[in-house]
Amino acid sequence: MQRLEHMQHLDKHLADQLAHVARESVRAELREQTRGQRRKAALYAGSGAAALYAGAAVALAVGLALDLVLPGWAAALITAVILAAVAFALRTAARPAAPGATAAGGTQTAGSASVPPVPSTPPTVGTDRIPGTDRAPGTDRIPGNG
Hints:
Low-confidence stretches: none
Order of helices and strands: HH
Helix content: 55-70%
Number of strands: 0
Strand content: under 5%
Structural class: mainly alpha
Shape: flat
């Protein structure tokens, strides 16, 4: 009996050690994967910041070029309109196409569902039957069936 308890203790100890080794190997693998992803994310953030400053420099250059032939306020206004148009074009390009958008250029707004056409007159109940019968107009009974 004592030998059986000793074997159970060894089995439990072995299972604990295996679980510990498995956890450590998974942690090491995850650490290695996240290290590469952190580096990639930092590079993307750096490139985004550089692109932002490059865009600001281009906007400044456009404004200064327009300032040579226009008053300062007009150059700034034109630059702002150009930037707004670029922002709108980028936002439109980034937005997914609506499932109900038409090919002719008519687009639906996001969240609006297609609506069936509304009839010009409201439907009436019971007027599609011949008075005194249970038949609709235009239907003839087959002779001999009553």
